[in-house]
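Incident review: delayed structure delivery

Summary: a single-chain prediction request sat in the queue longer than the usual turnaround. Root cause was a stuck worker, restarted by the on-call engineer. No data loss occurred. The affected request and its eventual output are reproduced below so the record is complete for anyone auditing the incident later.

Affected input:
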Amino acid sequence: MEKQSLKQSESDIAVEVFNKDQLLAMGCGGMIGVNRGSVNPPRMVKISYHPGGSKAATKSSAKKSSAKSKTKLPHLILGGKGVMYDSGGISLKPSNSDHAMMKADMSGAAAVLATMSTLKSLGCKNQVTAYMMCTDNLPSGSAMAMGDVLTMRNGKTVEIHNTDAEGRLVLADGLSLAAELKPDAIVDIATLTGACARALGPQMSGVMGNNQTFVDQIVKAAKSTDEQTWQLPLERKYRSLIDSYIADMKNVGGPDAGAITAALFLDEFTSGIPWAHLDIAGPMWSDSDGGWLQRGATAYGTRLLINLAENFKPR
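Output delivered after worker restart:
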């Protein structure tokens, strides 16, 4: 494993980078499938923040202070879509300005990375773990095709009906790994659907989740940081739209409720742990300077996630 750890005394951060062979061994079929068309191998970056030092250091110090060792820190996990360039794959995007913007399709992972870099200096008291799922999505002779069936990290199978619905595939593996840690809550952030951008425009993200108390914390963080979000319903009546007769599910539904069916897809990988999804396809990019936003990639979600990490409370 390609692994590096920053000095705990300096950062309270540990960083692990997983390569293609390791992702294969881990059964991360979403990451491997999306990456198949690229000449650049995928990477999953796991960042662990534990205030006061690593888990190992905490265990060591616990021998000296049994009272402190009994305190369990709240544990929040952040997941970020890190598609470095999204052509759409075989489902190639139209030849318009969307292509130029797709260098920012890693905005979710970028917001997660920026958030993790601040926690030590801000004195965050919660334990925070991040998964950044990083790959290209490109067309080639080896690229993922419609009709392919992928087996994800948690064992569920997915029939591909649109290779441009790739963000949910890489996040599915990240969410599966996050759920295995049994945290108090998980939030993912992704430039996921044009449907959400069309519904809410460039000024706000959409948020959905399986736990209202946790969603309320995200909405509060959004208001505190002036990064607007709007809750959309995780309407489970729409779950049948992603049914597949040859796999557990398809990676897309029909033409309607695209943001909701994408969130319903992600929910299949959370193991019932309190979870919320931020779809930032709209506010990830600005065509002009305005307010605190500058033209281009906006870094939307960074301030929101920092506020959430600092103030997170388990339900």
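Verification: The two ends are 35 Å apart (CA to CA).
Action items: add queue-age alerting; document worker restart procedure.
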